[in-house]
Design goal:
The structure holds two protein chains of two kinds. Chain A is an alpha/beta fold. Chain A is built from ten helices and five strands; from the N terminus they run αααβααβαβααβαβα. The radius of gyration of chain A is 17 Å and the shape is globular. In chain B, α1 packs parallel to α8, α9 packs across α13 and α10 packs across α11. Chain B has a seven-stranded mixed beta sheet, sandwiched between helices. The chains are: A alpha/beta, B alpha/beta. The structure holds thiamine diphosphate and magnesium ion.
């Protein structure tokens, strides 16, 4: 369960410290696996940490508790950030993280809802998690549930047609229990999103499609919290948070580097990356 | 058999060769240019390379449109997304009007490895084989992949070429004359026939070698064109040996195993054993570990052959 602190700055500092820990776990996990996706995991670290350690009602002791809020990692290749958040929350032992992508591990290369406790739905094929999140929000709405659904999509992922099919359905059915977050790092695999198939103007597109749209710095915990609070006050339509992010955030040699989309860090790189993250502030 | 290469490596290289002689070759990619190796074509022919972004369905239907303007379109991405995500675009907008589009995705099968079950297509042969008029080719090594990609241009209509990430031993060489629709006897035998495709061809040759040590004479036939199937070659060998093993890195449902069983059931029923993925999804792991886990090693092929012989 989330603990709410009255002091705002204290809350922000706690989440920031937790985000640093999540980042070191991501790096270590990928180093041990020898393959996987650091860039998009790090760009999403502050958002996912805020969701699990501030925003969402959830219970690691009872992963399928009906009253929980749901998180869907539509950009499933960022599985390490989700696994780190789940392990830190207590869904499974932290030691499991070192088994990522190994043949007997419950931690698959892409999230598997039947193997990993806390994973709400299997993702990995881009675009589909977002539609599944819309379906979850619809189901919860039918049941008049108080639970909310959060889903993270990539900017490259936003090129999939299914994103825009779902984007029209959600406002049609007034799914105000749904919050989408766009991890807008402007990088995909083949280069800059703006050079491949541009999604600009992203905020205007989502607004035009009937979503309440908020633009923030996706690495500013205070702004993330503020946007999530604002989303709760919006009735009758879903909210899309356009989070401007940096791929590989907080690791100097990964920041903005397309090559670290899907390449694991070497042993030396793991040490350097963790050193940089630890030097940036306390762990949580 | 020392040098090993992946069939995907043949893709970008062959596209460049084709691009040099044929100005109508156009290559479409869906944000995986490095993995599929189309980046090589992009470097030499930036004007005939288009990255569609992460939008496989749009890529396939656009390829159909390009084909109507006389372009010969090669479409990339991973096999999972090219045949799965975009299945109906391929079925209705490429194949139904019989348009000249070549679908040559990479990363087919479980040898994708650590990315796991969501990325390991074990259904693509079935999906492509069931479409009327689709030619389906599964190369067994780098050279066969090169020849098949080049030959695809000479076939007027949709062609699927299944490419992989795993590095494989060489079976053929630069002089190999690939003929679409023709099965190739790689080793003659009299007790059992092993029909194999893709990565399972080299392991079938290893299996035949070990079977020989046990006094079993196995015939190994490479079925690289799964559709149209070389009916005569398959029946001829089944008549000769009377026992058939089919080996593929694909579900035992709907792939080569099914194709061979369907044919032999009608034309010359003999006992058939299918070596393939037994109706389950893949998972993360090292390719070699996964082949073992799912029963796709040369030993599994030998065991299947021995089973048919009651040994
Ligand atoms: C349907 C589908 N097509 C292709 C891929 C391969 N793929 C994995 S990640 C990726 C790029 C995603 O870019 P983006 O959404 O911007 O992710 P991020 O930058 O946040 O890592 C691609 C093409 C996939 N997983 N699913
Ligand atoms: Mg991105």
């Amino acid at each position: 369960m989330t603990t709410h602190t009255t002091n705002k700055q204290a809350t922000v500092s706690l989440v920031e410290a937790k985000a640093r820990t999540i980042r070191t776990r991501i790096i270590n996990m990928l180093g041990a696996a020898g393959s996987g996706h650091p860039g998009g995991s790090l760009s999403a670290a502050d958002i996912v940490t805020t969701l699990y350690f501030h925003e969402m009602n959830h219970n690691a002791a009872e992963p399928r508790w009906p009253g929980r809020d749901r998180f869907v990692l539509s950009k499933g290749h960022a599985a390490p950030v989700l696994y780190a958040a789940l392990a830190e929350s207590g869904y499974f032992p932290r030691e499991d993280l070192a088994t990522l992508r190994k043949i007997d591990s419950h931690l698959q290369g892409h999230p598997d809802m039947n193997k990993t406790p806390g994973v709400e739905i299997s993702t990995g094929s881009l675009g589909m998690g977002f539609s599944a999140a819309v379906g979850m929000a619809l189901g919860l709405k039918i049941d008049k549930s108080e639970s909310r659904v959060y889903t993270l999509i990539g900017d490259g992922e936003s090129q999939e047609g299914i994103i825009w099919e779902a984007s029209m359905f959600a406002p049609q059915h007034k799914l105000d229990n749904l919050v989408g977050i766009l991890d807008y790092n402007n990088l995909q695999i083949d280069g800059r999103v703006s050079d491949i198939v541009d999604i600009r103007p992203a905020a205007a597109k989502w607004s035009a499609f009937g979503w309440h749209t908020i633009e923030i710095d996706g690495h500013n915990i205070e702004q993330i919290i503020g946007a999530l609070d604002e989303a709760k006050s919006i009735k009758g339509k879903p909210t899309m948070i356009i989070a401007n992010t940096v791929k590989g955030k907080n690791v100097s040699f990964m920041e903005g580097q397309v090559d670290f989309h899907g390449k694991a860090p070497s042993k030396d790189e793991v040490a350097q990356a963790c050193g940089e993250i630890e030097a940036s502030g306390p762990l949580g | 058999m020392s040098e090993k290469r992946a069939t995907r490596e043949a893709y970008g290289e062959t596209l460049i060769e084709l691009g040099r002689v044929n100005p109508n070759i156009v290559v479409l990619e869906a944000d995986l240019a490095k993995s599929t190796t189309t980046i090589k074509f992009k470097k030499e022919f930036p004007d005939r390379f288009f990255d569609c972004g992460v939008a496989e369905q749009n890529m396939m239907a656009m390829a159909a449109g390009l084909a109507t303007t006389g372009k010969i379109c090669f479409t990339g991405s991973f096999a999972m997304f090219a045949t799965g995500r975009a299945f109906e675009q391929v079925r209705n907008t490429i194949a139904y009007p019989s348009l000249n589009v070549k679908i040559c995705p990479t990363h087919a099968g479980i040898t994708v490895g650590a990315d796991g079950g969501s990325h390991q297509t074990i259904e693509d042969i079935a999906l492509m084989r069931v479409i009327p008029g689709m030619t389906v080719i599964v190369p067994a090594d780098y050279y066969e992949a090169k020849k098949a990609i080049a030959k695809a241009v000479e076939i007027d209509g949709p062609v699927y070429v299944r490419l992989g990430r795993a590095t494989l031993p060489m079976i053929f060489d630069e002089d190999y004359d690939f003929v679409p629709g023709k099965a190739i006897v790689l080793r003659e035998g009299t007790d059992v026939t092993i029909f194999a495709t893709g990565i399972m061809v080299s392991s079938s040759l290893v299996a035949a070698e070990s079977l020989a040590k046990d006094g079993i004479s196995a015939e190994v036939i490479n079925i690289s064109t799964i559709k149209p199937l070389d009916d005569n070659a398959i029946i001829e060998s089944a008549v000769k040996t009377g026992r058939v093993v089919v080996a593929e890195e694909h579900s035992i449902i709907g792939g080569l195993g099914s194709a061979v069983a369907e044919l032999l059931c009608e034309k010359h029923p003999v006992p058939v054993a299918r070596v393939g993925i037994k109706d389950v999804f893949g998972r993360s792991g090292e390719p070699a570990e996964l082949l073992k886990y799912y029963g796709l090693t040369d030993e599994d092929i030998s065991q299947a052959a021995k089973g048919l012989l009651g040994k």
